[in-house]
Amino acid sequence: MKAYTFLAVLGLCGLLVGCKTQSVTTTVDGDSGRTVSTSKASNIPDPYDSENRDKIAAGINARLAMGYMREGNMPLAKQKLLTALDQAPKDPIILDAMAYYQEQTGNDQEAQRYYQKAISVSPKSGAALNNYGTYLCRQGQYAPSVNYFVRAANDPTYLDVANAFENAGVCSMQIPNEKQAAFYFQRALQNNPNLQDSLVSMAQISLKEKQYKAADGYLQRLNKITPASAQSLWLEIQAAHALGDKDTVASAAMALQNQFPNSKEYGAYTKSGIS
């Protein structure tokens, strides 16, 4: 969808996916924006119970299906998902996985049906709400998607609150509503100060609002957690220029030229007249 990445988690103990003391997540596809599930450790199923055996088997089949989708093997992915649905027809994790498959194969009506069914089965599930929100945003339904992200963030058992708020910010930018986006990016950073997309977005918004010190602050935070990119260097040049910091302009410009000479950001710099 972007320049931004929606978190994608498939919660399987036993979209998108590792077991922690409080929850279980498995990362499958970092660009899909899906978060299929989280679960409390106290709810880990008894593997000797027949119903739970089916749910565990369904989760394994769903995870295999996601892997097959990454490889482009859609027929085998569908086979595994159909088996998973037969094993656990009311499990929101499995319903979300099938929804994602339907979306990826161009069956938007079926995708929406499965996403909505996952929510009907588990109305307060932050994972299911976030997944449906990302689907709506990818479909261009930006304002409704934000509502689902906020609902996801309000689930007290949902662990990926920061990412839900970041998703709300990303889709608010698409409306476009920068004031609303800034609010959600800030909420995201309150929950996870190291979210790179939120830091970049807040730097961009701050520059546009002529809040140059704030922009510089976000960029300094970004530089502490990740190597410079063409985008961050160009933002740094603009903020430093506005603040009259010629040394930073010179060093960032040299880094941009040396590391990213063919980037659109370097092209913008050479045309900007900043020196």
Explain how this protein is built:
- The protein has 275 residues and is mostly helical.
- Helix content is 65%, strand content 0%.
- It is built from 13 helices and no strands.
- The chain has helices at residues 50-71, 74-87, 92-104, 108-121, 126-138, 142-153, 161-174, 178-191, 196-208, 212-225, 230-243, 246-259, 264-272.
Per-chain topology:
Layout (H helix, E strand, L loop, with lengths): L49 H22 L2 H14 L4 H13 L3 H14 L4 H13 L3 H12 L7 H14 L3 H14 L4 H13 L3 H14 L4 H14 L2 H14 L4 H9 L3
Helix pairs in contact: 1-2, 1-3, 2-3, 3-4, 3-5, 4-5, 5-6, 5-7, 6-7, 7-8, 8-9, 9-10, 9-11, 10-11, 11-12, 11-13
CATH class category name of the largest domain: Mainly Alpha
- Along the chain, the helix and strand elements come as HHHHHHHHHHHHH
CATH architecture of the largest domain: Alpha Horseshoe
Q: Please name the CATH topology of the largest domain.
A: Serine Threonine Protein Phosphatase 5, Tetratricopeptide repeat
The outline comes out as elongated
Structural class comes to mainly alpha
Number of domains: 2
Tally of DSSP helical segments: 13
Distance from N terminus to C terminus (CA atoms, Å) equals 34 Å
Quaternary structure classification: single chain
The count of β-strands is: 0
Residue share in helices?
Answer: 55-70%
Whole-number mean pLDDT: 86
Q: Which spans of ≥5 residues are poorly predicted at pLDDT below 50?
A: 1-32, 35-42
Biggest β-sheet, characterized?
A: none
- For CATH, the homologous superfamily of the largest domain is named as Tetratricopeptide repeat domain
Please report which band the strand proportion falls in: under 5%, 5-15%, 15-25%, 25-35%, 35-45% or over 45%. under 5%
